[in-house]
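Retry 2 of 3 after timeout on previous attempt. Resubmitting structure tokens to design endpoint.
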């Protein structure tokens, strides 16, 4: 079993993302983490040092979360002895699983955090059906079946 198989089993909500990662070319810039915070909560953290908040766009459209950084080139020429901070423009697209919604995004100290929530519509949640015995049915012929949402 490889590491990607283990991640796929543990990262509920991102199954399609891992399927694409196996077949597509992996993107290494900017570096990012996908973290499971709870049963329905996820966090994407991206290291985008050198960017201003005004240079970052986050768009959700048709099940895809796209993060774009447009770095404005400095008008004056800079000379580097060593350049380790890339500061280059990027676009990174995440395939979101069904019912994954973006809650909010925060940018602080060069880290962009995008909070995600898996919200299953009530109509799709499992329902528990109460079973009435024959004795109850004969006494209460007017009683209706009770449906409860399972949490």
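Retry 2 succeeded. Sequence:
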């Amino acid at each position: 079993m490889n590491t990607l198989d283990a991640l796929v089993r543990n990262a509920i909500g991102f199954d399609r993302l891992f399927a694409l990662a196996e077949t597509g070319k992996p993107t290494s810039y900017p570096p990012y983490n996908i973290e499971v915070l709870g049963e329905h909560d996820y966090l994407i953290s991206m290291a985008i040092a050198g960017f201003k908040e005004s240079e970052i766009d986050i768009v959700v459209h048709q099940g895809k979360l796209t993060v774009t950084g447009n770095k404005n080139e400095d008008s004056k020429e800079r000379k580097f002895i060593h350049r380790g901070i890339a500061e280059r423009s990027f676009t990174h697209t995440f395939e979101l699983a069904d019912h994954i919604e973006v809650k909010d995004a925060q940018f602080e100290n060069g880290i962009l955090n995008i909070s995600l929530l898996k919200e299953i519509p009530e109509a799709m949640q499992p329902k528990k059906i109460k079973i009435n015995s024959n004795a109850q049915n004969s006494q209460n012929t007017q009683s209706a079946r009770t449906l409860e949402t399972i949490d």
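Attempt log closed. Residues 6-12, 141-145 have pLDDT under 50 and may be disordered.
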